[in-house]
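User: Some background: our group keeps a shared notebook of sequences we're curious about, and every so often someone picks one and asks for a predicted structure to add to the entry. Today it's my turn. The entry only has the sequence so far, pasted here. Could you supply the structure so I can complete it?
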Amino acid sequence: MKNAVKVSPVDMEARKNLDLRPGDTVRVWQKIEEKGKTRLQAFEGLVLARKHGTEAGGTFTVRRVASGVGVEKVYPIYSPMIDRIELVKRSRVRRAKLYFIRDKVAREARRQLRRTRMMVNVSGVTKVVAKEEAPAVAEAETATEAKAE
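Assistant: Of course. Here's the predicted structure to add to the notebook entry:
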C-alpha cells in the first residue's frame, strides 16, 4: 500500500474478525460524552441477534436485566462510539435469533410471583413469604406475640 487513508477511527479488520454469535455473553465498552469529557461505560449482556453479517451496516443486539427490568441495546458493529467488545462467555445455542428469551424471563417472573403471597402480621408489618413457608412463619409470629404478652 502506498498511502493508507484512514477512513474510520475504528479498527475495521478487528471488528470484522470479531466472532460474535447469538448466545455469547459480551461486555461492550461504550464511549459516553459528558461535559466535554468522554468516559467508558460497560454494558454486559447476552447477544440475542446478529444482523447483516460483517457489512458496513451490521448490528448486534445485547440484552441484560438491570434492576429487575430487561434492557436491550442494538449496537452497530463498526460504531466509533464503541471502544471495545469483550467476549465474556460463549454458550451453545440452537437458534439464530434468541428473541424467545424475552418471553421466557417474563414467564419466570410471573411464576415466582405466583409462588409468593402477602402476609400481614398483627403489628402491621407486611412480609412477603413463599407459600410453603407461610404456615411456619405465621406459627412463629403468634408464638413470639404470646411470649411478649
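Suggested note for the entry: The CA atoms of residues 140 and 146 lie 10 Å apart. The helical segments are 12-17, 100-115, 134-148.
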